Amino acid sequence: MQSVTLEFRTEDLVLLGVVPPGLFEKYEEVELLETLRLEQGWRLQLLRVRRRGPLKTAVELEQESRRIRSIYGLESFELVERRPRTRDYILLVRQRNPERLRRWLSLAGGEISPTAPFRLSADKVVASFLGEERAIRRVLKRLDREEFPYRVVRASGRPQVVDEASAALTALQAKLVARAWALGYYAVPRRITLTRLARQSGRSAPAYGKVLRRAEGRLIARWLSAEGALLETPPSELPHEA
Question: Which of 43, 94, 113, 178 could form a disulfide with 75 if both were Cys (CB 3.0 to 4.6 A apart)?
């Protein structure tokens, strides 16, 4: 696997149709937190959007939903969380891909996925991708052939397992734990409920909770083992409360 971070001019991505025109008149920054679904024709993404002024209420956003979708070319959007202190919205956004982006995605063959860091501002877009080296090379060659301007900020090989902690989790567990963390499930106070978190992932709350508990158990066991603090008696042998 290889990771690559590219820098684009925002104006070029506006012309391409990936960034809505006029977006940064009202917003300072957009960060891609996670791509939940990436098809040739559309994408479903979790975004952090920082507004230039005070945030609108959830009721105001709902009332202006049709106008917002029309202005920014969205199929749908859902407010996940408001963060007034930092002027951030966390949004679940579904958007159609323009024709040129569809061709690039077809060329990638499903072997490339967006990853962090992925931030958009009025001047530039820093976009990172993880995928098979051959697929990344195919797409970069197409960008060169089409003379689409970009700059490679960083490119490096990356093993499937990043560190020992991630090795303790399955791919599904790592994905759902990362999503829960990004949305504030582990914040104090908690910023999103398990029910809402599960609904956005297309799972039931009990199923999502089970994945999280198993992941948490693995991570805690690994940490205790590393600290040399594992219980002498396995949990299965401890007496149960009446």
Answer: 94
CA 188 – CA 62 distance, rounded (Å) = 27
Q: What are phi and psi of 72, to 5 degrees?
A: -105, 10
* Residue bearing tokens 């970069």: 140
The torsion angles phi and psi of 30, rounded to 5 degrees, stand at -130, 135
Question: 153 CB contacts (<8 Å, ≥6 apart)?
Answer: 5, 6, 7, 126
Whether residue 227 is predicted with pLDDT greater than 50 in this model: the reply is: yes
> Could you give the CA distance from residue 1 to residue 131 in angstroms, rounded to a whole number?
5
E strands, 84-230, in order: 88-96, 112-120, 124-131, 151-157
- Nearest residue to 95 via CA among 46, 22, 42: 42
Check: CB of residue 41 under 8 Å from CB of residue 64: no
Least confident span in 28-32, 41-45, 114-118, 237-241:
237-241
Q: Half-sphere exposure (CA, 13 Å, Cβ side) for 146?
A: 15
Rounded CA separation 85/237 (Å): 47
CA distances from 9 to 18, 146, 148, 224 (A): 12, 16, 10, 47
Give the separation between CA 134 and CA 178, rounded to whole angstroms.
27
